[in-house]
Amino acid sequence: MKKLSGFPYTHVLVLGLAKSGTAAAQLLLDSGVKVRINDFKADPDSPEVHYLKESGAEVITGGHPLSVLDDIDYVIKNPGIPYENPVVAEAVNRHLPVVTEVELTGWLHEGPMIAVTGSNGKTTTTTLIHEMIQADRKPVSLAGNIGHVSCEVARNTSEAETMVTELSSFQLLGTQTFRPDIAVWLNLYEAHLDYHHTLTNYHRAKARITKNQTDEDVLVYNADDAAIASFLPEVNAELVPFSLKEQGKGAWADETSIYFEKEAIMKKADIVLVGEQNLQNILAAVAAVKANGVSSEAIVEVLSTFAGVPHRLQYVTKKNGRLFYNDSKATNLLATSYALRSFEKPVILLAGGLDRGTGFDGLIPYLSGVKSMVVFGETADLLAGTAERAGISDVVKVDTMQEAVKEAYQRSAEEDVILLSPACASWDQYKTFEERGHMFIEAVHTL
C-alpha cells in the first residue's frame, strides 16, 4: 500500500472518525506522521480506537476541547462536521489548513482522476463511468461519497488506473489543491442549506471541483443548467457540455438516439435506465468516458444492461400488477420531481422526512399524475398541505414505512406505480437514506 510522499505537515488532527477519519488516520500513521484524533462520540474502549492507539495515535473522546489544536499544523475533518464546530472555527481562526480526507488523494493517486459532483445523480453517473471504463477493459477504481473512502482506495491504485470518485459539497468544501483530470458537474440546485447556510455558499462549494483545473483538464458540465453556466467564465479547463436541449456539441440526444459530437452512440429505446434525469446522467457519463478514451462499444454494452443503483429510482418488484420503485436517495425536490416525470402511469407517492425549513410547493407542477400520497416524518403535515393545493384529495399520514407501504398498496390498482421518493433527508427517522430504502423494500416483500 502506498504512503504519503513529500507531505509537508508533521502533526495532524483528525476530527471525527467514521470511515473517512479512520482511513485518513491510518494513512497518516503509516506515513510516519504524528496523529491526534478527536471524536466526541467514539467509544474509548472500542477495538477501532484501541487499534489506532496501538498504531501510535493519540485519541481524545467525550468532548471537543480546544486544546486538541495545540501543536497541530493540519486538520482533517469529517465532511459532516460543520464549520461552526468550536474546534473547526478555532482552527480557521489560527489559519490552520482545514480539509477533508479527499485532499489526501492528490498526494497518492498518480493516474487519471474523474470526479463527479452535482445536487442529484452523482452515484448513478459515477457508477456508469466506472462500468463503462471497466467494460473497455481498462484498469479503474471507484471511490468517494459512493461508499469507498478516496484516500484508502488511492493507496492501492496504479499509475495506469483511472480513479472515479463521487464528491459531495461537504467534501469539496474541504479541498485546497485537489485537481481532477476530468471533472463532471451534473446540476446545481438548492440543497444542504442547513449546512452551507446560503445558496451562494453551496454553489461555491460545488464549484471547487474545477477550481484548480488547468487547460490540460476537462470539465464536463450540464449546458441546460443556468446556475452552472454562471460559473463557466471562471473555468480554466476545456469545456465539454452535455445537453437534452442543444444538439451537436459534447454529449446530446434527440428523439431517437444519444450522440457524442457527430457520432450516434445508440438508440434511446435500447437503454435500460428510465427517466429524464437518468438520460442526463447517461449523457454526462458518455462525455466523461469519451474524454477518457473509452470506446463506443463499451458504452453500448453498459447502457444495454445497467438497470440502476440501489435507492436511485430502483425497480423493486411487480406485485399484482403494481410496480414498486425505491427512490430513497431523493432527498430534495429536484430529485423527486425527476422521479415523478419518469412515469406516465398513475403514481402513489410515499414522501416525507427531515424538516429543513423549506416548503414543497415546488413539487406541485409534477404531482398531476399522482392519485394518492402517503406522507410521514417531520414534514408529513407540510407535504399533506402541498398535496391539497395540488388537488390531491387522497392523502394519508402514517408513522412507519410498513404502514406507508400497506396504505399505498390499498390505494393502488393494477398498472399503478408505488413510488418511494421522499423529497427529504432521512435523519428524522433513519440513520441513512439506505436504511430507509431497505425498510421500504422489506415492507414491499412482506406485503
From TrEMBL:
- Where is this protein primarily located? cytoplasm
EC annotation from Swiss-Prot or TrEMBL: 6.3.2.9
What organism is recorded for this protein? Answer: Halobacillus kuroshimensis
Q: Where is the Mur ligase central domain?
A: 116-289
Q: What is this protein called?
A: UDP-N-acetylmuramoylalanine--D-glutamate ligase
Query: Which InterPro entries does the entry link to?
Result: Mur-like_cat_sf, Mur_ligase_C, Mur_ligase_C_dom_sf, Mur_ligase_cen, MurD
**Lineage, highest ranks first:** Bacteria, Bacillati, Bacillota, Bacilli, Bacillales
Q: Which GO terms describe its molecular function?
A: UDP-N-acetylmuramoylalanine-D-glutamate ligase activity
Keyword Disulfide bond found: no
The residue ranges of the Mur ligase C-terminal domain are 311-424
| Role according to the record | Cell wall formation. Catalyzes the addition of glutamate to the nucleotide precursor UDP-N-acetylmuramoyl-L-alanine (UMA).
Q: Which gene underlies this protein?
A: murD
Query: Where found in the cell?
Result: Cytoplasm
Say which family it is in: Belongs to the MurCDEF family.
Give the EC class as a word: ligase
**Presence of keyword Nucleotidyltransferase:** no
- Tell me which residues bind ATP: G118, S119, N120, G121, K122, T123, T124
Tell me what reaction this enzyme catalyses: UDP-N-acetyl-alpha-D-muramoyl-L-alanine + D-glutamate + ATP = UDP-N-acetyl-alpha-D-muramoyl-L-alanyl-D-glutamate + ADP + phosphate + H(+)
Q: Which Pfam families match?
A: Mur_ligase_C (PF02875), Mur_ligase_M (PF08245), MurD-like_N (PF21799)
Key words of the record? ATP-binding, Cell cycle, Cell division, Cell shape, Cell wall biogenesis/degradation, Cytoplasm, Ligase, Nucleotide-binding, Peptidoglycan synthesis
Instruction: Tell me which SUPFAM superfamilies the record gives.
Output: MurCD N-terminal domain, MurD-like peptide ligases, catalytic domain, MurD-like peptide ligases, peptide-binding domain
Named in its record, the pathway it takes part in is: Cell wall biogenesis; peptidoglycan biosynthesis
